[in-house]
Amino acid sequence: MVISMAMYNDKVMEHFMHPHNAGDLENPDAIGNHGSPVCGDMMQIAIKVKDQVIVDAKFKTFGCGSAIASSSVATDMIIGKTLDEALSFTNQSFIDELGGLPGPKIHCSVLAESAVKNAIWDYAQKHGLELEGLKGYDPTKEFEHEEEEECEV
Ligand code: FES
User: Fold this and answer.
1) 143 is a domain residue
2) pLDDT at 85
3) Lowest-confidence range among 19-23, 36-40, 43-47?
């Protein structure tokens, strides 16, 4: 399936053209990386945490417009949330916030869920925290999702 710009809604385009929270975070408390097994693109999310609340977050994404839009809304959504609240977000939460993504681009939002989880996992490891949302979580395991279609944009 060939993806064209016309398949993206205005909100996705806005976050792609003017992403929020892009760049480096000074002295981050934790960092999460994830690479897509579908396309090989990469996302990094860095967080600052105070009293188990994410007080700041920034992303760096080597990927498509959907991945950049997903990074933008994901960082917007986790800032101000507790670690547990941020762990409750799935890639579908980010897709819903964006108002939808074309089917073959669903995997791009999975990068954001995994990068957020990996950042919180990194924080929990450094601080010896046991968080309910990380029970059984293995950051080295491939994230399983249903969309495996290749996209061409
Ligand atoms: S993240 Fe690779 S195509 Fe979207």
Assistant:
1) no
2) 98
3) 36-40
Neighbouring residues of 124: CB distance < 8 A, sequence distance ≥ 6: 83, 130, 131, 134
Report the domain count for the chain. 1
* Average pLDDT for 34-57: 95
Task: Examine residue 12 and state whether it is found in any structural domain, yes or no.
Answer: yes
Query: Mind listing the pLDDT tens digit for each residue in 77-114?
Result: 999 999 999 999 999 999 999 999 999 999 999 999 99
Q: Which residues belong to the active site? A: 39, 108
Q: Is the CB–ligand 1 distance for residue 151 below 6 Å?
A: yes
**139 belongs to a structural domain:** no
Please tell me the predicted confidence (pLDDT) of residue 153: 47
112 lines ligand 1 (CB under 6 A): no
Q: How far, in Å, from the CA of 134 to the mean position of ligand 1?
A: 25
CATH of the domain at 97: 3.90.1010.10
Identify which of 1, 5, 33, 41 to mutate to test ligand 1's pocket (most ligand atoms within 8 A of the CB). 41
- Strand 42-50 to strand 30-35: parallel, antiparallel, or no bridges (unpaired)? antiparallel
pLDDT over 60 at 60, yes or no: yes
Domain that holds residue 25: 5-127
Whole-number Å distance, alpha carbon 108 to ligand 1 midpoint, is: 5
